[in-house]
Write a structure and sequence with these properties.
oxidoreductase; Nitroreductase; NADH Oxidase; FMN reductase (NADPH); FMN; NADP; 4-stranded antiparallel sheet; alpha+beta; 11 helices
Length: 245
């Protein structure tokens, strides 16, 4: 293994940060590293909002479900899928543009995720810790109003950045055989592999909490398909100009 692979495999979410600011020069280098990520057709369909106002940070922590590390991290970013800049550029160049296509939503969402992950790896390589905040999508309209996001821009997730004040274990991942298929999608062994992974995660949670948490991977997924559905997202995206055509 080389250091880059080891770094990638050592990722943990950090939710407790030291009271130490990231130097501005390093912060800007992290964003530049993010810009170096692959981007569909060189569109670069993203905008990053660096939220520094304490009141805005507090409000975002509330809107994201009461996550205090949104306030306590050195820096908090909101990564936005942005088709406004590129669409208007094409329009100014003489194109009769079409807005609101599903492909545009996918391109922008993928672009911003790739860009953010580059920022994350750069940050971790510098000894920083991170935590993605998907709770930004709990109240996307309120977040958009707070950040004054225009049409054809939507907030995808937040990101806490700072110096770690904890050292959690690396969370196990699914067995490679369950996610790496050859030639075709063969799920004949998936049930057994998931059962194996459930046992692994049950041990992980017991050891991590000193026996205070009894659950597994499959159990943890239930809210994703029952209560954490964010049914508001379709209407919200339509209003943002990302109507599914």
């Amino acid at each position: 293994m080389n250091p880059t692979i080891e770094l990638l495999k050592s990722h943990r979410s950090i939710r407790k940060f030291k009271d130490q600011q990231i130097p501005r020069e390093l912060f800007e280098e992290l964003i530049r590293a993010g810009q170096s990520a692959a981007t569909s057709s060189h569109v670069q369909a993203y905008t990053v909002i660096h939220v520094v106002n304490p009141e805005s940070r507090a409000r975002l922590a509330e809107l994201a479900g009461g996550q205090p590390y949104v306030e306590s991290a050195s820096d908090f970013l909101v990564f936005c899928a942005d088709m406004k800049r590129s669409t208007e550029a094409a329009e100014r160049s003489g194109a009769d543009v079409t807005r609101g296509m599903t492909e545009q939503l996918l391109v922008a969402s993928v672009d911003v995720a790739l860009m953010a992950q580059n920022v994350v790896i750069a940050a971790e390589s510098a000894g920083l810790g991170i935590c993605y905040i998907g709770g930004i999508r709990n109240n996307p309209q309120e977040v958009s109003e707070l950040l004054k996001l225009p049409e054809h821009v939507y907030p995808v997730f937040g990101l806490c950045l700072g110096y770690p004040d904890q050292n959690p274990e690396v969370k196990p991942r699914l067995p490679l055989a369950s996610i790496l298929k050859q030639d075709v999608y063969d799920d004949s062994s998936d049930e057994a592999l998931v059962a194996e992974f459930d046992d692994t995660m049950a041990r992980y949670y017991r050891e991590r909490t000193g026996g205070n948490k009894s659950t597994n991977w499959s159990e943890q997924l239930k809210p994703l398909f029952t209560s954490k559905l964010r049914a508001h997202m379709k209407e919200f995206l339509n209003k943002r100009g990302f109507g599914l055509k």
